[in-house]
Design brief:
globular, alpha/beta, about 300 residues, Rossmann fold, transmembrane helix, 7-stranded parallel β-sheet, Sc_DH/Rdtase_CS, 9 helices, Glucose/ribitol dehydrogenase, 2 domains, transmembrane
């Protein structure tokens, strides 16, 4: 028996940045659930990754599923995002799930804003948030009632410590606001919009930006004492694309190994209570209950 009631066979998922890491795992899990997959990659830098991901999808897809496609694209620019969507529509005729995953980051070793140049800042924002706007804008023209958009933010949007990725964390905070606002905007169209905020996860992105010392420590500050793997994150994307999450929109899932040490966050982002510990959270709840009970008693006395 399947855990999730995902898309019926033949539904189309466009996974932006699906060639490696979390994106590749999402493609694999979606293919196992019967979806038809299109994903993007950066030509020249990720050609081998894209070929490997295509092989994985073809080996994993359900019998009768349409063959996947890999689309090379620089998603920092609106025109390129439109071309990606147009290619998917020409091939499959529609888009049922849009997964936004593109990301680039640079480690700021000096903790100084001087290290973040204008060129670098523009590249980070264009990759990490402009692409989400552009792809979503063009994909929405072909998405129908029941479709889903899933954005990828980060634990660093909620707890930007250490401040080594200040430009990166800024974009991840923007993605949270984009997700919430877009969800409200699309409610009447019955298109759901949610997000996933992974904690420290082993992906090629980490290996490309961290030095040897930081790689050795990566994930060690998490209470689970390890970084996660992409296959531990992908099920969140499956759930949010499934009918099992039909009453969830404007939310962010947090598969992070309890990486938020100073902020208590529940499974759904907008129900979080700021507190330094679970004990403080319980204390706040008890005070609220006490105030409500006292108010009820006062109403009884006044009306008696």
């Amino acid at each position: 028996m399947k855990v999730f009631s995902f898309l019926a066979q033949g539904k189309v998922a466009l996974v932006a940045g699906g060639d490696s890491g979390i994106g590749r795992s999402v493609c694999y899990h979606y293919a196992k659930e019967g979806a038809t997959i299109a994903f993007t990659y950066v030509k020249g830098d990720e050609d081998i990754d894209a070929k490997d991901t295509l092989d994985i999808i073809n080996e994993s897809k359900m019998e009768g599923s349409v063959d996947p496609i890999a689309i090379p694209a620089d998603l920092r620019y609106d025109k390129n995002c439109k071309n990606v969507v147009d290619e998917v529509i020409a091939k499959y005729g529609g888009i049922d799930v849009l997964v936004n995953l593109p990301a680039v980051q640079y480690y700021t070793y000096s903790y100084s804003l001087d290290e973040i140049t204008e060129e670098r800042l523009e590249k980070v924002f264009r990759t990490n948030i402009f692409s989400y706007f552009f792809l979503t804008k063009h994909a929405l023209k072909h998405m129908k009632e029941g479709s889903n958009i899933i954005n990828t933010t980060s634990v660093l949007a909620y707890n930007p410590d250490p401040p080594s990725w200040l430009d990166y964390t800024s974009t991840k905070g923007a993605i949270v606001s984009f997700t919430r606002g877009l969800a409200l905007h699309l409610t009447e169209k019955k298109i759901r919009v949610n997000g996933v905020a992974p904690g420290p996860i082993w992906t090629p992105l980490q290996a490309s930006v961290l030095n040897d010392e930081d790689i050795a420590r990566f994930g060690s500050t998490v209470p689970m004492n390890r970084a996660g793997q992409p296959y531990e994150i992908a099920p969140s994307y499956v759930f949010l694309a499934s009918e099992d999450s039909s009453y969830i929109t404007g939310q962010v899932l947090h598969p992070n190994g309890i990486a938020l040490k100073h902020l208590h966050v529940t499974a759904y982002d907008n129900t979080r209570i700021s507190a330094t510990s679970t004990c403080n959270t319980i204390y706040v709840m008890c005070i609220q209950i006490f105030i409500q009970f006292s108010f009820i008693q006062l109403v009884i006395l006044v009306t008696a």
